[in-house]
Write a structure and sequence with these properties.
6-stranded mixed sheet, alpha/beta, 9 helices, 3-stranded mixed sheet
Amino acid sequence: METDKLPEGYKSGFVNIVGNPNVGKSTLMNDLVGERISIITSKAQTTRHRIMGIVNAPDYQIVFSDTPGVLKPNYKMQEAMLNFSEGALTDADVLIYVTDVVEDPSKNEEFLSKVAKEKVPVLLVINKIDLLKDNSELETIVARWKEMLPKAEVFPTSAKEHFNVTNLMNRIVELLPQGHPYFGTDALTDKPARFFVTEIIREKILLNYDKEVPYSTEVIVEKFDEKDGAIHIMAVIYVERDSQKGILIGKGGSMLKRVGTEARKDIETFFGKRVFLELFVKVEPNWRNRENKLRQFGYVE
């Protein structure tokens, strides 16, 4: 669509999703965008980067941004993740703060106080209400959150069950400012294809390994070769220690093979093409605290 042919009153804007880890931000964004853009697992810190999902309609474009869960940083990588989340406060047209029915509102008060001072509209999404037994519980939770974010509009939702997400979407569209689209009107995300390959592989690592291993890994796609209706992908999984490399590969390569098979199936679904996936494991000591490695892996500009 050419910009001079846009309908009168066309709207566009950035809608940024923030909140603590594990409250369902990625599930909500995937529901709003209608595509599986952010990886979702039950482990905290699943999203490490700001991921944009773009929704195009004849009369508007919404650029959603899913951010890492807000947490107090223990090492340089988490500092970079917090910077992504705090950056989301500065460039939003609409801010969505996501919590859930079990979270303590006083958690991360410092970040919450920044949200409370926002000049742009803030929509407070209280997610996972399918876990509640009755309405009186919800009323108590809403009242507690209204004390913390008095200016916010409250949307009790269940992103997993798609409950009240349509109403939330309608309100977002109402709040959008008028303006031209920021991206092509057929764009789905600002991220390149390789990014989604790394996210899918990371998701399989998160699902298949326990303890520290998933959080010590980074995935880099070294080859993405598309021809004759198939994609040949070569990816390297970096870990911090030799012992983690052994766990990741597993006896006789069994664990790495499982991760590769599961990832390949999802990558084929994502791209709608046959995929040949090769995985390698390399040790990169203490990469989460090394500036040059964080820059190489896209955490630092």
